[in-house]
Specification:
InterPro entries: DUF4708. By secondary structure, this protein is α+β, with helices and mostly antiparallel strands. It has a domain at about 20-115: Alpha-Beta Plaits (2-Layer Sandwich). The chain contains four helices and seven strands; from the N terminus they run E-H-E-E-H-H-E-H-E-E-E.
Length: about 160
């Protein structure tokens, strides 16, 4: 008999006001020609995610050395954060108001990065465990779908 149990939990979180957020495009400087640019891009993106708790980020697919970061405007303007970027050898290419699409992609990548290596992405599923490829037994897996819905209520007077 199959003991498969399917749960369909649904979670809601408060999405910050994008008017208080900025999207910063960063470029990895001084990439060694012997080293993979894409690997350096991912490592720097993940380093920033794990060292700055108020930051979410994602590598940009159309570039091998750039990634985008979403953070609060106040945090972006601090000397501490600017110094961190200099120490990490990152150059600011652009800074503009955040959009919900950027917020969603950065949130998805950051959640996946923070869940690893205890949860690994396999297709559309997250599979529990580090040695999931070697395990002959059934494994726990979950499907994740992150969707940001922005609803603005307008009051119209006639």
């Amino acid at each position: 008999m199959n003991n498969l149990v399917v749960f369909r939990p649904l979670f809601f979180i408060h999405v910050p006001n994008v008017n208080n957020l900025v999207c910063v495009i960063l470029k990895v400087k001084n990439v060694d020609p012997e080293e993979s640019s894409r690997q350096k891009q991912i490592l720097k993106c993940r380093e920033l995610i794990f060292t700055e708790p108020t930051v979410i980020a994602t590598p940009l697919l159309w570039s091998v050395s750039e990634f985008q970061v979403i953070l609060q405007r106040e945090h972006w303007q601090t000397q501490k954060f600017q110094t961190r970027l200099e120490r990490m050898d990152l150059r600011v290419l652009d800074c503009h108001p955040a959009a919900y699409s950027s917020l969603q992609s950065c949130l998805q990548y950051t959640i996946r990065a923070k869940l690893a290596p205890k949860w690994n992405q396999v297709g559309t599923l997250l599979v529990q465990g580090r040695e999931f490829l070697k395990c002959p037994d059934p494994l726990i897996a979950v499907s994740k779908c992150i969707v940001l819905v922005y609803i603005q209520i307008l009051s119209l007077k006639f």
